[in-house]
Amino acid sequence: MSNAPRLTALDALHRSLGATMTDFAGWDMPLRYTSERDEHHAVRTRAGLFDLSHMGEITVTGPQAAALLDYALVGNIGGVATGRARYTMICREDGGILDDLIVYRLADTEYMVVANASNAQTVLDALTDRAADFDAAVRDDRDAYALIAVQGPESPGILGSLTDADLEGLKYYAGLPGTVAGVPALIARTGYTGEDGFELFVEPRHAQALWRALTEAGAPAGLVPCGLSCRDTLRLEAGMPLYGHELTTSLTPFDAGLGRVVKFEKEGDFVGRKALEAAAERAGANPPRRLVGLVARGRRVPRAGMTVVAGGEAVGEVTSGAPSPTLGKPLAMAYVDTAHAEPGTEGVGVDIRGTHEPYEVVALPFYRRRK
Amino acid sequence: MSNPQQLRYSKEHEWLSAAEDGVSTVGITEHAANALGDVVYVQLPEVGDTVTAGETCGELESTKSVSDLYSPVTGEIVEANQDVVDDPSLVNSAPFEGGWLFKVRVAQEPEDLLSAAEYTDFAS
């Protein structure tokens, strides 16, 4: 792999918009266009437009596509109806999380697996490896798609003005092929912001035309282009985990409080089953640490890697932290010893550069949209 | 962006006003504010503190990171901008005006402060 950053099909557009760019998993991506706080508020109250073309698409096809994914992933993928999507994970034999994924069932024998950019190669390699005994093909489609997301309460109206697709009938975690602004797209009602919204998978050669059409259609409703910086604060407020922070190979889904994605009841063996059964038991009986929310009583911002303290002792570690534009105070997600993980636990703080700043322990998420 | 002619600049991206009665005003440049992104927390030195040129005297926290605040001169703090403590976004919206950070009675000024033109070159 070369060291030059990869550019999305929208790179020139981002630069013409004056975006501040950042390296993200080897891609040069927009961090923000103007103020990340304004972009954040736009998604919460109106709409935001994101380039997410760094995400890693992998297509799995063949008579045993479902059987392969049931074996390779922890979820019940064969049980996903065509046109629907599922949040799931891929684990190692020892139960450690390799990545969290969204799997779309495009047809009876065709799935699209969307991996995090940083893990796309790992997931591709693991799926290819695990496919050895199955009549199914695993295809690297990272270069086949650009991904544009429209997120926020105004997004159904904006997208609806550009497509004949039945958005009313498109449920959360569903996806259907359609045409948006004359561009063939897989239209999915998914996102990573805690708001209603859509993700549009299109051929890279159509990405600029689609972006421009969405920008124009969304302008009256207050849609603005949004960078990865606000995407991070949006997902943090919504209590959504980020791989490399809340999820790592040294944690199982049960350690991360996401044991519900593991479907032991599905037929047949799957990679990690044995280790995950033990992990489930451990998590049920005597979890060492739990993922909690922390809300600052002061104004200094906790960051990933900082130590959570109580009574002068280390009781946990911050995995993500940022100032919350919606709540107006700093927030963190942290793994905290069970004894200090109950919401309302007194005396918990974060060691911020040597000072123990007081924090309130809360249940996740920090923010839930009104339906 | 343009850096005001009448100010002088440090390589740590602070600006310094010409002294009036021995007191100069200090802030961070628009270039620095843009690089930080939205500033959400400002910790300033307190009145009476002694600050030293080139040494940290506070911190600026933005969405993505925390940065040390350096003093461009040596001297004694005579005022800290409470407005910017209450509303750190002033650092972004008016870095050379309402977003100033502190006033310092200058005891000693380093010789390597930059002019507006020199700083513009340096920061580009």
From TrEMBL, chain A:
Transmembrane segments: none
Catalysed reactions, semicolon-separated: N(6)-[(R)-S(8)-aminomethyldihydrolipoyl]-L-lysyl-[protein] + (6S)-5,6,7,8-tetrahydrofolate = N(6)-[(R)-dihydrolipoyl]-L-lysyl-[protein] + (6R)-5,10-methylene-5,6,7,8-tetrahydrofolate + NH4(+)
Residues that hold substrate according to the record: E199
Biological process terms in GO annotation: glycine decarboxylation via glycine cleavage system; methylation
Example of a GO cellular component annotation carried by this entry: glycine cleavage complex
Pfam families: GCV_T, GCV_T_C
UniProt xrefs under InterPro entries: GcvT, GcvT/YgfZ/DmdA, GcvT/YgfZ_C, GcvT_bac, GcvT_C, GCVT_N, TrmE/GcvT-like
GCVT N-terminal domain sequence ranges: 12-266
MF terms in GO: aminomethyltransferase activity; methyltransferase activity; transaminase activity
Residue ranges occupied by any Aminomethyltransferase C-terminal domain in the UniProt entry: 289-367
Catalytic class of the enzyme: transferase
Keywords, sorted A to Z: Aminotransferase, Methyltransferase, Transferase
E.C. number(s) listed in UniProt: 2.1.2.10
Domain of life: Bacteria
HAMAP family tied to this protein: GcvT
Subunit structure: The glycine cleavage system is composed of four proteins: P, T, L and H.
General function of this protein: The glycine cleavage system catalyzes the degradation of glycine.
Homology family: Belongs to the GcvT family.
Protein's name according to its UniProt entry: Aminomethyltransferase
Lineage, opening ranks: Bacteria, Bacillati, Actinomycetota, Actinomycetes, Kitasatosporales
From TrEMBL, chain B:
InterPro entries assigned: 2-oxoA_DH_lipoyl-BS (IPR003016), Biotin_lipoyl (IPR000089), GCV_H (IPR002930), GCV_H/Fam206 (IPR033753), GCV_H_sub (IPR017453), Single_hybrid_motif (IPR011053)
Modified residues (N6-lipoyllysine): K64
Co-factor: note: Binds 1 lipoyl cofactor covalently.
Assigned keywords, A-Z: Lipoyl
Gene3D superfamilies: 2.40.50.100
Domain of life: Bacteria
Cofactor field: (R)-lipoate
Entry's Gene Ontology BP terms: glycine decarboxylation via glycine cleavage system; protein lipoylation
Function of the molecule: The glycine cleavage system catalyzes the degradation of glycine. The H protein shuttles the methylamine group of glycine from the P protein to the T protein.
Assembly: The glycine cleavage system is composed of four proteins: P, T, L and H.
Cited PANTHER family: GLYCINE CLEAVAGE SYSTEM H PROTEIN (PTHR11715), GLYCINE CLEAVAGE SYSTEM H PROTEIN-RELATED (PTHR11715:SF3)
Name used for this protein in its record: Glycine cleavage system H protein
Naturally occurring in which organism (per UniProt): Streptomyces pacificus
Lineage: Bacteria, Bacillati, Actinomycetota, Actinomycetes, Kitasatosporales
